Amino acid sequence: MERDTGVLVAELRGSTLLVTLHRPHAANALDDELMVALRRLWESVAAEPSVRCIVLTGAGEAFCAGADARMVAGDRASVGDTAAQELAFVPGPQISVPVVVVVNGVCAGGGLHFVADADICIAAKSARFLDPHVSIGQVSALEPVLLRGRMRRDVLARMVLLGKHEQLGSEAARDAGLVSEVVDDDVALERGLALAALITRNSPEAVRLSRRALRRAEEHALATELDLGWELIRRHRAHPDAAEGPIAFLEKRVPKWTS
């Protein structure tokens, strides 16, 4: 399980697996290579009983800036047929142990999936959260469905509809229910690992089954809505705005939307 693929680093700390998104030059944005590496890692973790908790964070000053604009602007190497297949890069549904997410910087767009998927999510004081999908011509359909049960609906609606023009600082994110704790930047990872250590002091089987009970009802309730959201996203890809948005972002210009 321990690995360093360049875009992803995983190391065992006792019975906790520390996973670091490692594309700091691109604010740890998700591309095909990183998502494949994550899917393969979770497959390995699922088969390894010695891992009792996962801590996930980002390298450098960012947590995850969402989908890489170059990937969005081009042809994806692999696209899931269902929402579950598309979201296989997040650990929660693939494994049976708790996931602690430490948001250490900007968390945007697709990076919010890790927050929504987390069993426990904490944030460094410098962390900020935004959903820029509509600002780059993309549909925000999966993130709001997954976050709806975690945070205040009015705050979520502002993030979705205002796009890049609405950003939440760490304290505002905590007040909205997006994260459970805010800590100083220099101790954020240490705090995440400490929470994981406390989890691993408990009965492994009791933790697994308790986590399963927490997640099961939510997963069943959301499955249909997620597939509908994924269908809307795929349908929108034929619209001119879906290509114009990321191209304009890469060219650092104002997009020319279709009226």
UniProtKB/TrEMBL annotation:
Identify the keywords attached in UniProt to this record, alphabetized. Isomerase
Keyword Cytoplasm among record annotations: no
Kindly give the Pfam families that the UniProt entry links to this protein: ECH_1
Domain of life the protein comes from: Bacteria
Q: Any idea which GO molecular function terms this record carries?
A: isomerase activity
Mind telling me which Gene3D superfamilies this protein's record contains? 2-enoyl-CoA Hydratase, Chain A, domain 1, Lyase 2-enoyl-coa Hydratase, Chain A, domain 2
| PANTHER family linked to this entry | ENOYL-COA HYDRATASE, POLYKETIDE BIOSYNTHESIS ENOYL-COA HYDRATASE PKSH-RELATED
Q: Member of which family? A: Belongs to the enoyl-CoA hydratase/isomerase family.
Write the protein's name: Enoyl-CoA hydratase/isomerase family protein
